[in-house]
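Input structure tokens:
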């Protein structure tokens, strides 16, 4: 993954960074929110993009 498109996904419940992904910042301006599995919460929670 290229470093300029790399984003971190943080759990909205426990605030741990669980996932890394990438996106096209020219086409998607707002922050991503996805339902992902958190291994610390042991359930599916909303993960938001962080800086």
């Amino acid at each position: 993954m290229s470093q300029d498109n790399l984003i971190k996904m943080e759990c909205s419940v426990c605030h741990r960074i669980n996932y890394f992904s990438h996106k096209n910042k020219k086409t998607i301006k707002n922050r991503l929110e996805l339902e992902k599995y958190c291994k610390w919460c042991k359930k599916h929670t909303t993960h938001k993009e962080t800086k």
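The first strand starts at residue 6 and ends at 11. The chain has no helices and four strands.
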